[in-house]
Design brief:
Layout (H helix, E strand, L loop, with lengths): L13 E6 L4 H11 L4 E11 L4 E2 L6 H11 L3 E6 L5 H17 L4 E3 L6 H12 L4 E3 L7 H10 L4 E6 L15 H6 L13 E5 L1
Parallel strand pairs: 1-2, 1-5, 2-4, 5-6
Antiparallel strand pairs: 2-3, 7-8
C-alpha cells in the first residue's frame, strides 16, 4: 500500500520535527507527513507566550494545545518566549531547540505554510544556520482544494480570531464548515493566508 510504513523500516526514515500551530494548516500538513513513509515525526514543537500561557500564533490556552497533542499521539515540546518577545529572543531559543534535536538525529523541521514566500525563506535561512532543512507539505497548494480536503478528512476547527477589515467579531467562535466558506467575501482566502482569520483545530 502506498505510504504504508511497512515499506519503509524505521532505520531508513528521516527524523523530523513538526512546528505545530494548532490550526487547520498544521493539521493538514501533519496528516500528509504521517501518510508519507519517508519521515518519522519525533515531536511536535510549539512556540508559547510564557506570560499569557497561550500559543504565540493563535493565542489559545495551553490546555487546548496539550489536548491536541494527546489526541494526535505525538510528544509535544513547548518553546516559551517572553511577553514581548523580540526576534532575537525567538531565534536564540529556537536555534538552541533545533541544535538539541539535531544532536538526536533530527535533520529537518516541517511547517504548514502555503503561500507566504518571505516567511518560508526566513524559516529556511534560520534552519540552514544549524544545518537543517525545512519541509513544506502544503506549499503552493490551492487553498480551496485544501479546505475541501480538510472537510473530506472529517477534521473540525473553530475560528479563534479575525481581521476586522474582512470579518466581524460574530465570526469568532464559529465552526468552520463549507457553508461558511461559501459565504466569505471573494477577497478572503479560505485558509486565511493573508491574516483574515485564524482557525484552531478542535
Amino acid at each position: 500500500m502506498v505510504g504504508s510504513d511497512a515499506w519503509f523500516p524505521d532505520m531508513t526514515r528521516e527524523k523530523i520535527i513538526f512546528c505545530w500551530s494548532g490550526g487547520k494548516d498544521s493539521a493538514l500538513a501533519l496528516n500528509r507527513l504521517r501518510q508519507d513513509g519517508r519521515y518519522e515525526i519525533v515531536s511536535l514543537l510549539t512556540t508559547c507566550n510564557e506570560h499569557f500561557q497561550r500559543v504565540s500564533m493563535h493565542g489559545v490556552r495551553l490546555e487546548l494545545l496539550d489536548a491536541q497533542a494527546a489526541a494526535i499521539g505525538l510528544p509535544l515540546e513547548k518553546v516559551f518566549v517572553s511577553q514581548r518577545s523580540s526576534n532575537d529572543e525567538y531565534q536564540e531559543k529556537m536555534t538552541a531547540c533545533m541544535r538539541a534535536h539535531q544532536a538526536r538525529g533530527v535533520s529537518a523541521c516541517a511547517f504548514g505554510d502555503i503561500f507566504l514566500e518571505d516567511l518560508k525563506l526566513w524559516r529556511e535561512a534560520n534552519l540552514a544556520q544549524v544545518g537543517m532543512r525545512g519541509i513544506f507539505p502544503l506549499w503552493k497548494c490551492d487553498s480551496r482544494e485544501l479546505i475541501r480536503e480538510f472537510f473530506a478528512l472529517g477534521f473540525g476547527t473553530v475560528i479563534c480570531c479575525v481581521n476586522d477589515a474582512y470579518l466581524g467579531e460574530d465570526a469568532v467562535g464559529r465552526n468552520l464548515h463549507a457553508e461558511f466558506i461559501r459565504s466569505l467575501p471573494p477577497e478572503v482566502d479560505p485558509c486565511g493566508e493573508n491574516g483574515e482569520l485564524e482557525k484552531e483545530v478542535g
